[in-house]
Amino acid sequence: MTSDIQYTTPGMDAASAARVIELLQDRLNAANDLHLTLKHVHWNVVGPHFIAVHEMIDPQVEVVRGYADDLAERIATLGGSPVGTPGALVAARSWEEYSIGRATTQQHLGALDLVYRGIIESYRAGIKELDDLDLVTQDMFVAQTEQLELFHWFVRAHLEDTGGKLSTEGAGSEREAAAQAG
Known about the structure:
Pfam families: Ferritin (PF00210). GO terms for molecular function: ferric iron binding; oxidoreductase activity, acting on metal ions. Belongs to the Dps family. It comes from Nocardioides acrostichi. The structure is a single chain. This protein has helices at residues 14-44, 50-77, 86-92, 105-130, 135-157, 174-181; strands spanning 45-46, 103-104. The protein is mostly helical. The chain has a two-stranded parallel sheet. The N and C termini lie far apart (45 Å). The model has no long low-confidence stretch (mean pLDDT 95).
């Protein structure tokens, strides 16, 4: 990828820029996947708490769509070319397709607990690596992680009992989390 970079931001070498672009592209793929997954949940959630969850999800979709744009523009700023096509996303992602269709609010929220857990863990890994590469991009990752953690808390508040235990505790897959939460 370094050979594809004709220029980068002042003060950053091409090799560092290439790695930062890789980290940004991975998060761009995750943001595009997440906002589509959240919209899928918005359309497919049913049950007694439908309207509360339906309306909770849409603002998350809009924020995450904005993250995708910010990430893509940072890639371009560093001299890269952001890739936002569906085929490229599917080919590059390291996670499975969201596995829940029409389901109750609790089932979708259980599955989303695992989705958010995975995306936040990958953001935090990027934050650590960026500490030595690019503090500007790291700052972007930190800000996005803060908001994603808030959204995760919104989801988890529906899955928590009064003692603080999550209904999804120990779940290893979306389907397992959905079953435990449902």
